[in-house]
Amino acid sequence: MTVRLELLGPPRILRDGVVIDIARRRTRAVLWRLAAPGGRVARDEVLATFWPDLERPMALQQLRSALHTLRRALGPLIDGDDASLGLSADVAVDWRTLDRLLALRAPDPTALAACLDAVQGELLAGVTLAAAPRFDAWLTLEREHCARQIQHGMVVVAQHAASDGRVHQALAWLERAIAHDPMREDVVRAAMQLAYQLGERASAIHMFERLRDALGESLGVPPSTTTRTLYDAIVTDRVPPADAPPPVSVVRHAGARPPAPRFVGRSAEIARLRAVLGTGGIALISGPPGIGKTRLADEAVREPFALTMRSTARELDRSLPYQPVVEAVRELLRDHTNAARLERELAPAWRHELARLLPELAPAGPSHGDGRADELRMREAVAQACRIIGAGRPLVWVLDDAHWADHATLGFIAALLRRSDPVLTVVMTVTVAMWPAALADVLQTARRQGRLTALPLEPLPPAAAHQVLASQLPGAPAAALDQLARRAEGNPLILVALAGHAQHRGVAAVLADDALAIPDAVHALVAARLARLSATARRIVEVAAALGPRFDGLWLARATTIEEHLVLDALDELLADGMLRTGGATDYAFDHALTVAVIQHQTSDLRRRSIHRHIATALEALHTDLEPVAGVVMQHWRAAGDLQRAGRAARLAARRAVGVAAWDVAIDAYRVVLAGTADEHRAALLLELGEAQIGAAAYGAASQTLEEAWQLADARADHITAARAALAWGHALLGQSRFADAAAIAARLVARGGPELARAEILWGAALSLEGADLTAAAEHFARAAATPDAVDAVVRAQVCFELGSVLAQQGKLVEAVAQYREAAAHAAAGGTVHALMWRILAANNAGYHLHLLGDAAAHDAAEAGLRLARDAGMIGLEPYLLSTLGEIALAGGALDAAACWFDHGLALAERLGMPERIAGLTANLGRLALARGANDVAIHQLSLALAQADALGTRHLATQIRCWLAPLLPDAEARAMLHTARAAAVLAGRQHLLRAIDAALASIHPPG
Fold this sequence. Notes:
By secondary structure, the chain is of the alpha/beta class. It contains 48 helices and 15 strands. Helix 38 packs parallel to helix 40 (834-853).
C-alpha cells in the first residue's frame, strides 16, 4: 500500500492512487500537523493544539480516537510513543519533498521543478479549524513560510536554467515567482535583466511599472534606488558606467600591503591550493569571518607560483554588473607590460567588446558590432584578454567575499567552467553562512565537472594558535599564550587582536580579567555588524546574548514580546550575517564568545537586568512545573540582581541538573543553596555538591568538598553520611588517578565495617582495576563485595558483576565478560531504582561493545536498547558511552556516514557535559573514522590529541588502545617506540587481547637498520 498526501493546494489523501476521505475535520488537521516538515511532534503539543480546553484524560481519549481513525485509513503509518507522534517516512508528502529539496545547498533542479509544477495553490488551501485557534495560528505561519519557499524554489530553478543557457525558461520561472509575490524587488530585477538580455526591452519596462504600482498601492513607497538604476539603464540601452579608472602605473598590489602576522597551521591547504593553480576551475576557501581566508589565498598565489589579479565583491555593489571583473582586469592593466601586450595582441573586435566594461580601452576609429550589449561576446572578450596577459603562465583570479558577487559576475565564472581550455583559476573566499543560491549553483556546476576544490577552513589548532601568538608576543610565558589561544577559539583575526590587546595592556592584565577581554578591533568589527542589523534583529540579538553563546530558538521566541514571525525573520537575518549559526531545527550558537561579550557590553546595565528579569518571569509563567527549567530561571534571576528569587529556584535546579547530568548547573545551584544553609545541614549538601563535581570531572574540587563533608559528618557522628562522603571522596581520587589514595580510603572503610562495606570493597577493586597493576587482586575485592550481607541489594550485585566484567574484558576474556554484563543487567533490572537503572544502562553498553569485538550481530541491538533506556530516563550523562559504542559498530560495518553521526553527536554531548574520558575516546574514534576515509593526516591529528588527553587522565587501557591505532600511521622508529610503550602497559595489566594486537603490529614493522 502506498499513501501520498498532496498539501500544496486543496489537500488530498491518496491510497494506492485512490482519493480517500476522513470525515472529521479535527482528525484531518491532526494528520496535517504530523505531515509538516521537521520530524516528530510532542504528544503534549498535539493535545494543547487540538484539545486545549479538555482535561488531560479526556484530551488523551480524543487523541486516541483520532489516531485510531487515521491508522484505519492509512494503515500502520502513524508512529507514536508516550512522548511524541510522527508520520512514517514511507508516506509521500509534497510539502516535505519541497522542504527537503530546498534544504540542500544545491537542489536537483529537475526534481524541484517537478515539485513546483505540481503546486495547486497555497499550503492546505481552504483549511481552517475555528475550534482549535492554536492550529489556525500555526497554519498561518506555515503558509507564509511555505509561500516564501515556493517562490525561492522558482528562483532557484530559474537560476539553474539561466546558467545552462535556457534563458527563456529562466524568465518564465521568474515571472511565476513574481506572480507569487509581486513586491520582491530582487526577483523583479533579475527578471528585468533576463528580459533585456533576450531583447524584450518593453517587457522589462512593464515589469518595473507593475512593481512600482504594486509598491505604491500596498506600501506607499517607490522602488529602491538599485531597481530604478537598472530601469534607467534598460530605458537608455546602456549599463551604468563604472568609476573612472586610476592612472596606469607600475604599482604592485602585493608590495603595498602591511606586514602580516606569522602564517602557520595551513600547510595542507596551501599545498592543495597550489596544486590546482593553472588547471582552471574554482578553488573555494570558506569559513567564518576572521578565519584567514584571504590570507590563505595570498600565501598560495605569491610569486613565482602564479600571475594574480584580485578583486572584492561588495554588498553595496551587487547592482553593478561585472564590477568584480572590472576591478580584477584593471589591476592586471596597472602593469605597463600587461597593458602594452593587450593593446598589441587583442583584436579590435574583442577590444570593442571589452570596452563595454572598461571604457578607457575603447579603440580609436569606427566601432565594431551593432552597439547592442552581447553578454556572450563580452565574456569571451574578457577571456581573450586574460589569455593574452597570462602568456602561458598560470593566471589566478582571487575573488574575495564572493558571496556578494552579482549575477553577471557569477554568470561569467559559469561560462569559464563551460570552456574546454582553462583560461584562469578562480580562487573564491566566502563566508559559510552567506552563500546565495546563485553562487551555490555555480559551485555545484563546478563540482559536477570535477573542477571544484573545496577548502573549508576550521579554527587553527592549539599549537598553531600558540605559534601566532608567540610571534606577536615574544617572551610571553607559554601558559599565558595557551590561555589566550583558548579565548581566541582558533580564529586568526581574534588571535592577532588579542595579541595587540595584550601588547597594550600586558598579558597578565588581559588574563586577569574576569570577563573576556574585548580587543578594540574585535569590538569595532562586531559593532559594525550590529549597526547593519534591523531594529528587530538588534532587539532579538540582545535577548539571545542574555540566553548565552548557545541557545534554543524556541526559548528565544518565548522570552520576548516580539511576534513569532518577526523573531524568525530576525533569526534568518542573523544567520545570513554569520553572527549566528544553527546546529539543528532550533539549536543556535553565536559565531564566537567575543561576539556575545560585545553585545552584552553594548547593552546598558538597566536594559540587561530588564531582559534577564523578563526572561525569568516568562519562564516561570510558562511552566507550571518549574523543575525542568529551574537552573535557567535561577541564572536569570541572579543576572537580574534578585538573589532571593534565585535562591528559591536553586534547590530545584540542583536536583534537576543532577538528574540530567548538567553538572556545571548543579554545582552552581548547590553553591547558591549552601550560601544560606545552617551548619547542621551542610554535610549532606556538601556530599551532593561533591558528587556533582565528580560528574563534572572536577575531581580536585570534589576531593576538597567531600573531605569537608566527611569531616563535618564524622564530627557530628553521622556515620551513614560520613561513609557515603568517604566513598565519594575515593571515587574523586580515582578520577585524579590517585589510585593508592582511593584504595587507602577503601581499606579504612573496610577495616571499620559497618555501612557501605560492599561498596568500599568495590571501590578498592575499582582502584586496582583502573590502575591496571593487579587485576587478580581487583577481582578478589569484587568477590568479597559479593559475599557481604549488602550483596543482597540488587544494585550492589549489579555493580559487582559489571566490575568483574570489566576485569575480564581487560584480560581478553570477552565471552566471560559479556556474560557478567548480562548478569549485571539482570540484577539492575530487579533493583527498580534510578541507581539500578544506571548500572543496567552501563551493562547494556559494555555488552554491546564487547559483542561487537566478538563479531556478534546482537551488538547493535544491545547498545541501541541501552540508548533508549538512557533517553527515556533522562540520563544524558550515559549517552556519550552508548553513542560511542554505536559509532564503533557502524564503523566496523563500513557505514561511515552513520558512524560520523554517532561520533559527532557523542563528542558534542561529552564536551557539553564535561566528560574528559569520553572526549578522549570519541576523539580517537573520529581519528579512526578519518583513517577509514583515507584522511591519514586528520587521523594522526585526532588520535594524537586523544592520546594526550588519555595520558593526562591516567586512563591506561584507553591510552594503550589509542597507541595501537596510532602507531601504524607513524614512521617505523616512532611506531616501534610507541608500541613498546603500549606493550609494557598491556603486560602490566594482563590485557591479552591488546597484547595480541600489539605483537602483530610490531611484527609488521621493518626491523631497524
